[in-house]
Amino acid sequence: MSVNTTILFTIPVALLIVRSMRRFFDLPTRLPRLNQALTWIWVPGAILYVAALLMKWKTDQLDEIYLLLVFAAVIVTLLRLQNYRPARTVLLAMVPYVLYSAIELELELTGGAFLKEYDDAFDTSRGFAMIWLFTFILIARNQKKQLEKERILREEEEKAKRLIEAQNAELERLVGERTATLTQQAEELREALTELRITQTQLIQSEKMASLGELTAGIAHEIQNPLNFVTNFSDVSAELIEELEEERQRADRDPELEAELLVDLKQNLQKITHHGQRAASIVRGMLEHSRASTGERQPVDLNVLADEYLRLAYHGLRAKDKTFNATLVTNFDQDLGTVQAVSQDLGRVLLNLFTNAFYAVQKKKERCPDGYTPTVSVTTLRQPDGDVEVRVRDNGTGIPEAVQKKIFQPFFTTKPTGEGTGLGLSLSYDIVTKGHNGTLTVETSEGEGTEFVIVLPRADGTE
Fold this sequence. Notes:
Elements: H1 6-24, H2 27-30, H3 32-38, H4 42-55, H5 62-80, H6 85-109, H7 113-117, H8 119-222, H9 224-249, H10 255-290, E1 298-300, H11 302-320, E2 327-331, E3 339-341, H12 343-367, E4 375-382, E5 388-394, H13 424-435, E6 439-445, E7 449-456
Parallel strand pairs: 2-4
Antiparallel strand pairs: 1-3, 4-5, 5-7, 6-7
């Protein structure tokens, strides 16, 4: 084989080196133009070979010259990639080997005597340069792997960051939509609440008017008795006055008869005054009930208040149903005294409880017409600790267990549609618990009867 033909075998080695470098440093991406130029790295080798043939060069250094040219191209490439750490490492790896090759080539071209004299030293230097080259190439390879891991990690972090940003944007959009929806719902709720309050006010007023209607019906019946007494005693008194005038016109006047007539007349006037006051008391109670509560507490005789509203509620029901009759039982504690309370409010509570009690016994009477006596009782008692207790009991239909916990809820009623608003017991509960710091509880047994218990604490004051 000719000495010049060795360069033909060096060209594939150069191509392999360049190909490895292009892949290792990803030149198509980093340096696309230089990468394209390196595809022609075989051209200098071919030119040297053709020139050697034409000029009949007799030297075996053409392959080394070509390799130095290849290494120069590699070094230029690495200098262009000096910001890339593995490239700097490979550049550092090639420096000793390139210097050694250049010195060796120079010595060969100048005669080679010095090279032959120190052949062992140059072989050792070559070995050191090769070891240095491969060692730093391995280091560069590890650096590339580490940088690749860092790149992948950064890409994952960037991807995660973009994902988080997208999610945040989506969340902000959803929050914005939800906020707008909640704002709209809040506005709708405010409007609904306003309408509910208006409706509630109307229903409360309706309940008060219904209560007033019950009271008025009872008053119309109850006030008839004292008015009848007043009328009757007025007529009798007028007759006594006529008889007295006739007696005084007689010649033989009877002083004893005149005195007796005057005594009867005085008694009649006292009875007229008594029943007139009774009628005035009933009217005053009606006015107090219809008047808005002032919230001011005054001494109240619960015995009198309970008795009066019991009879008013009873006569109110009888005004609607003349066939209805019930037994009224009162058990009043004579040592009860008075309590500090708002009489109009407590009157509404008692009237509501009595009305419900009469309604319950009336319904039971309709179901059990034979052998059943409707009975409504009211009991007052001062407990040992000073609290005042009022019990309203009936032997009516009772309250089903399923609805016992709901009876004090607003708008809940067990009555058929049109017969109750469901506010009576709710208002009564608020008056007792919130207005007087007391308690209102119920004890009932379905089919046997119901008892409501009002307890007013001694803090309300006693006389």
